[in-house]
Amino acid sequence: MNEMKNPYAYTEAEILNVVDETANIKTFTIRPKEAIVFRAGQFMDLTLPGIGEAPFTPSSNHNVKATLDFTIMSAGRVTKLLHQAKKGDTVGVRGPYGLGYPLDKFRSKEVFIVGGGVGLAPLRALLYALFNEADQYKKIILKYGARTPKDIVYKVEIDSWRAKAKHVETEITTDIGDESWNGNVGLVTTILKKESVDVNNAVAIVCGPPIMMKFVTFKLLDIGFKDSDIHLSMEKNMSCGIGKCGHCRIGPYYACKDGPVFTYDKIKDLPNIWD
Ligand SMILES: Cc1cc2nc3c(=O)[nH]c(=O)nc-3n(C[C@H](O)[C@H](O)[C@H](O)COP(=O)(O)OP(=O)(O)OC[C@H]3O[C@@H](n4cnc5c(N)ncnc54)[C@H](O)[C@@H]3O)c2cc1C
Ligand code: FES
Fold it and tell me: Which of 21, 46, 47, 224 is spaced 20 to 30 Å from 11 by Cα?
């Protein structure tokens, strides 16, 4: 008789490193006992045995097979406890789930990436995937917004991304400045300009808090992007991650199975998409 595999079974993983990105965001590097292969944009469930689990998108390069990075904001019960985990501790990991970014649709185009806050985590995995084959893309443009200069994640790394290829551009803005900050001050929508991108040969990828995604989408439409070229990470509340429980339903879709990345044309007429 065939043995049924438990879909909720997780692989144990050792925490190899923890980096404090900001006061409430940390990046964990973990090494699963069995390597997990994923595509940028897919997500996994991290488990604290006996406590609970939550979904996160790996923020690392999918070409690195032995370890995974997760950049996690302390939001509630599970993430607060995850933030107490130290190098050498064990967590569980299951997945990957979802479809990931459709890189085949991005090739030969300008890739216009817009991130807000910890939403830069899945976009970091996307950026690494693009850098792995940078000559396939016409331009790689990152526009990132954080609340204050102290809330910028991957501060040191972002500078190194600009050096990955000649056609990589990055710009950071903060809602509120301080004495250390000489970049733009204003919401991320203030740095999305028509002249930064050739909208007729570009795709936009957006990840951040729902309210940011809503106003960024409206701005992208305003500067001429088509609905079908705007890719949004719909991080709806999830439970099973495998299309069984219905928690993540968006109209006819399950975000865990049919997403979490959707083009705007697919979801724009569905109710409460920005909640
Ligand atoms: C596909 C996917 C990928 C994600 N990737 C990341 C990531 O890379 N890094 C990261 O920091 N977070 C990510 N999240 C969000 C993360 O899953 C939640 O922050 C986490 O589940 C909160 O669990 P908790 O037990 O700590 O908080 P809870 O006690 O469950 O909730 C605390 C607060 O957070 C809110 N919350 C819970 N889940 C979500 C959610 N999915 N979206 C928005 N608010 C939520 C609750 O409404 C509540 O206000 C992702 C979510 C999804 C669905
Ligand atoms: S999380 Fe259970 S169906 Fe999507």
Answer: 21
